[in-house]
Each structure stands twice: as structure tokens, then as C-alpha cells.
Amino acid sequence: MEIEDIKNIRKWKSYKEMTSYMACAIAEGFCEGEDATEKEKASAWQYLLDTGQCWHLQGWYGRTAEQLLEEGLLLPPKEVKAGQ
After folding, report:
1. Does a structural domain hold residue 49?
2. Residue 56 in domain
């Protein structure tokens, strides 16, 4: 992934409209995720990281999320305050 404006990823339409199913489809490249754009791919991985789902799926998800985070292609997950 090569995304120039990663700092605003959570404002992107593709991130705001992301679902768990679509994030997995995009990450793995199946069905609706086959032709995902770079922004959609980044949004999917950011969504999986922010929701914590990448740690509950197959190990590949967590390892890939860590790698993307280390490479600066994802933002650190947002801290969720109690009641949100």
C-alpha cells in the first residue's frame, strides 16, 4: 500500500462505511474485495486494527496489521473511552 494521506484515514468515506465482512473480504481479496483500491485496503486494515478484530481472527491478520503499523501505513488504534 502506498497512501499519501494516511493521517486522515478515519475521515475517508471507505473507512466510515467499513464493516467487518468487507474488511475481511478486502484484506483477503475475496468476493467484493477482489478489486479494492489502495484506499479501501488501507481503510480495511485500519478498521480491523481499530476494532481489535485483527487479534481475534487468524494469526495472519494480526501479523499483517503489526507489519503495516510498523511501516507507518496504519495509525495506532484509537483509545476507546468507557461508555463509547
Report:
1. yes
2. yes
| Sign of the dihedral defined by the CA atoms of residues 18, 23, 45, 58, in that order | positive
Give dist(CA 47, CA 52) in Å, integer: 8
Residue 64 belongs to domain spanning: 18-70
Residue 29, CA distances (Å) to 14, 21, 84 in order: 16, 12, 31
Task: Confirm whether 50 is domain-assigned.
Answer: yes
- Coil, strand, or helix at residue 4? coil
In-domain check, residue 76? no
Per-residue pLDDT 10s for the chain (84 aa) are: 556 688 899 999 999 999 999 999 999 999 989 999 999 999 999 999 999 999 999 999 999 999 999 999 999 997 655 444
DSSP line for 39-55: HHHHHHHHHHHHHTGGG
